[in-house]
Specification:
binds 2-acetamido-2-deoxy-beta-D-glucopyranose, about 800 residues, EC 2.7.11.1, Transferase(Phosphotransferase), domain 1, leucine-rich repeat, 15-stranded mixed beta sheet, Phosphorylase Kinase, domain 1, 9-stranded parallel beta sheet, alpha/beta, Alpha-Beta Plaits, 11 helices
Length: about 800
């Protein structure tokens, strides 16, 4: 009698707690997608283990309201040959897989299902094949970079559907075909950045690209195969700041209207076949970098804008048919640093006046200059191959030697000079493992690599962009200009207060760098391509602890009054590290296919495959001494896995086996259930005509046994209340948070198990029914117990 009163009271509490409790566990579809990734990609973070990505903070994963909204996995050394089942992360907003050179494969069309994506970064991986048309369905995107992969084929016109897009970077691939417009890129009215450097795009530049609704600031199509004119429509886009059309096959005259683009700072038109007059740039007051080398302009005197552009730092006009003399006041432009006018027909006397700009380098080699009149000996000047240097380099005259690039040496003031064991000395004199890589700039407002002030600005700007992260210092070094006029630097980022960064920090650093939400004076946008990081700090805290205390052992016996029973066992420690992919043996996907032959791969969320052999060994050939219960379904055995974990094995007997499809469904269902108040599935065996489910083993048996005094455990009232709340939480999870929802239908004291700390766990889903299952509404095992109508 007493027993029934107690159970009644527990029921009331269960009901109340059910109403109150609020929990936030990972959505099961998201969990499935991440688990599928785990089985197809290598080198995912070691803490991608345990039952819940959102609650356990898997590295690189961020959740909002139990949905995965951000996956930032830059630079983790991940490899895999498929894009993975990412498309089911339908709430994803940020996806960054950059700098994982081991990631290959094509982008599947299903990427179009990530409807909430705002940032897509796949920089510096090894993806190949065409960019899927479905990319046009990602309507929320504001930033895409697929830079530095091996994408081929056309730019899909559907990209024009991305009306919110601001940053579009497809540079450094092998894309070909025309620039798509109408439909296409002309409808990207919010785009600020078109970065298409280093591809094989062909055809002419469509005038629609510069329609009156465009707000572009950076247009970079350098190093492609574009032909035809620069369309005069470019004059519509007054916002333009950086224009790179160099290294194509453009011809025709440069449209005069270019001169009306007053915001341009960097203009690259070099290495084309442009004709006519050297363009008039007088209308560009902030222009600092000009390169129009190697075009076929008409012969002309030095244009007047040479002396009027007060912001000019860099003028590169190699091989542009300039004739006559350079006006003396050109050399006193206040910011001038680098002038390359080699291979022209400049003649007469070179008068540099009294400029004593020590930062100025002037290359006038291969011209027709006959005389020099200067007192400005501080300028670095080369007149090699001019009549004024008849003896060439051997003449010993300083300005008759070839121009050498400036360089600088930075001395640190550390007392240490080197560090032991691969560590690197930081600018602040500590030894650690920096995160390193190359910064590859699409454009810059200077070319003088010898000027350390740019370099300092770069370091300071990056350091402040990393504010809030444990970054001690930033070092940029080894500047160089590549064959396509892109400046590169080597970058080192040093950790502060420790020897190395953890994966999360590397992912964030990479994301910040490539997202470029910060300003870099004098530098244009860039790509960050890392050198793979040597030494992630092992961020998995507490993993060791669990191996001592974790193995929670218990007993569980079913079979009291009712028909069905079950016993379930426990193992409570999450197997974080020991789960060290026990090779293919633990790949149920492979095995399943070979059994089923119909390709229906089960979506297993952490459940392991066990061989019949293994389970037979640990139960002493399913001996009676290991049997801890029996019922209509079959018997339940206790066993200890080689890892030390104790499990309860539920073995179906002949006659109560399910069809393969039903068995798969049941495993899929059970393996989704992860909650501390619900008994969880450890794995299964489906081999040699056997169907077995392996559960965690629960030490203290059923609640029924404790209440009846049978187990020797005395439950005080506060313990009973806790048991009721625990059970309620478990049920709440099953009813409301599991997807699909599960109605237990047979909750009773014998289906509530107690672990060694008297935490209650709901057990026996042998009678579970899926909610919302259209059609027949299946029952996962033999139908027995309390039916509820739903
Ligand atoms: C996207 O663009 C293509 C062609 O530009 C068009 O046919 C298609 O209907 C658009 N799709 C959506 C979903 O708007
Ligand atoms: C260059 O353009 C400016 C206007 O920006 C104009 O005043 C000047 O006359 C032009 N020079 C030549 C040589 O056409
Ligand atoms: C101009 O062309 C020559 C010969 O192809 C090349 O060596 C030089 O680098 C080019 N100059 C520029 C500034 O691109
Ligand atoms: C990585 O470091 C950050 C601090 O920068 C810390 O918040 C985070 O917990 C660490 N991650 C792991 C898995 O230890």
């Amino acid at each position: 009698m007493n027993l029934y009163v107690t159970i009644g009271g527990i029921w009331l509490l269960i009901y109340l707690a059910h109403v109150v409790a609020i929990l936030a566990f990972t959505n099961t579809d998201d969990f499935a997608a991440l688990t599928a990734l785990k089985s197809s990609w290598d080198n995912l973070p070691p803490n991608w283990n345990g039952p819940d990505p959102c609650v356990l903070n898997w590295e690189g994963v961020i959740c909002t309201n139990s949905r995965v909204t951000s996956l930032k996995l830059n630079g983790m050394g991940i490899s895999g040959s498929q894009f993975g089942d990412l498309a089911s992360l339908t709430e994803l907003e940020f996806l960054d897989l950059s700098n994982n050179l081991g990631l290959k494969g094509t982008l599947p069309s299903s990427i179009g299902e990530l409807k909430n994506l705002t940032v897509l970064m796949l920089i510096g991986c090894s993806f190949f094949g065409p960019i899927p048309t479905t990319i046009g369905s990602l309507k929320q995107l504001t930033y895409i970079s697929l830079s530095s992969n091996n994408f081929t084929g056309l730019i899909p016109p559907s990209i024009g559907n991305l009306s919110k897009l601001s940053w579009l970077d497809l540079s450094d691939n092998q894309l070909n075909g025309p620039i798509p417009v109408n439909p296409g890129m002309d409808s990207l009215g919010n785009a600020r950045h078109f970065h298409f450097s280093n591809n094989q795009l062909s055809g002419s530049i469509p005038p629609e690209l510069f329609g009156p609704n465009m707000k572009l600031i950076h247009v970079m199509f350098d190093n492609n195969r574009l032909v035809g004119n620069i369309p005069p429509d470019i004059g519509n886009v007054k916002s333009l700041e950086v224009v790179r059309l160099d290294r194509n096959l453009l011809n025709g005259e440069v449209p005069e209207i270019l001169n009306s683009l007053g915001n341009i700072t960097d203009l690259y038109l070099a290495n084309n076949k442009l004709l006519g007059q050297i363009p008039n740039l007088t209308g560009m007051p902030v222009l600092s970098y000009v390169d129009m080398s190697n075009n076929t302009f008409e012969e002309s005197d030095v244009p007047s804008w040479f002396t009027s552009l007060q912001s000019l730092t860099t003028l590169v006009m190699e091989n542009t048919q300039l004739i006559g003399e350079i006006p003396v006041n050109f050399f006193s432009l206040p910011h001038l640093e680098k002038v390359v006018l080699s291979n022209n027909k400049l003649s007469g006397t070179l008068d540099i006046g009294s400029s004593d700009n020590t930062n100025l380098t002037v290359d006038l080699s291969s011209n027709s200059i006959t005389n020099v009149s200067t007192k400005a000996y501080k300028i670095k000047l080369s007149l090699l191959n001019n009549p004024v240097c008849p003896g060439g380099e051997s003449s010993g005259v300083k300005y008759c030697t070839a121009e050498k690039d400036n360089s600088y040496i930075i001395l640190n003031s550390c007392t240490l000079t080197s560090c032991s064991s691969d560590r690197v000395l930081s600018p602040k004199c500590s030894c650690s493992h920096p995160y390193t890589g190359n910064l590859w700039f699409f454009s810059s407002s200077f070319l003088d690599l010898g000027d350390s002030s740019y370099h300092n600005v770069l370091e300071q700007s990056l350091l402040s962009a990393f504010k809030g992260l444990p970054v001690d210092s930033v070092n940029v070094s080894h500047p160089s200009v590549d064959i396509n006029s892109h400046i590169q630097y080597q970058l080192q980022i040093f950790p502060s207060g420790k020897e190395s960064f953890n994966r999360t920090e590397i992912a964030i650093l990479g994301f910040l760098l490539n997202r470029q939400n910060f300003s870099l004076p004098s530098f244009g946008p860039f790509l960050f391509i890392e050198n793979s990081y040597c030494c992630f700090s092992d961020g998995v805290t507490g993993a060791k602890k669990s191996s001592n205390t974790g193995a929670i052992v218990g007993a569980s016996v079913g079979c009291v009054l009712f028909i069905l029973l079950l016993c379930v066992g426990i193992y409570a420690f999450r197997q974080r590290r020991s789960a060290k992919r026990e090779s293919d043996k633990n790949n149920p996907f492979l095995l399943w296919d070979s059994y089923k032959g119909n390709g229906a791969v089960p979506q297993l969320k952490g459940a392991k495959w066990f061989s019949f052999e293994e389970l037979r060994n640990i139960t002493n050939n399913f001996s009676e001494s290991h049997c801890i219960g029996s019922g209509g379904y079959g018997k339940v055995y206790k066993g200890t896995l080689t890892s030390g974990e104790v499990v309860a094995i539920k073995r179906a007997q002949q006659g109560s086996m399910q069809g393969a499809a039903e068995f798969r469904t049941e495993i899929e269902l059970l393996s989704r259930i992860h909650h501390k108040n619900v008994v969880s599935l450890v794995g299964f065996c489906y081999e040699q005509g056997e169907q077995m489910l392996v559960y965690e083993f629960i030490h203290n048996g059923t609640l029924g046994e404790s209440l009846s005094g049978k187990s020797g455990i005395k439950l005080g009232w506060s313990s009973r209340l806790k048991v009721a709340l625990d059970a309620a939480r478990g049920l709440l999870y099953l009813h409301e948070l599991a997807n699909p929802p599960i109605i237990h239908r047979d909750i009773k004291s014998n289906n509530i198990l107690l672990d060694d700390q008297l935490n209650a766990k709901v057990a026996d889903f042998g009678l579970s029914k899926l909610l919302g299952d259209t059609g027949k509404g299946y029952v996962t095992t033999q139908v027995k117990g309390t039916l509820v109508s739903i």
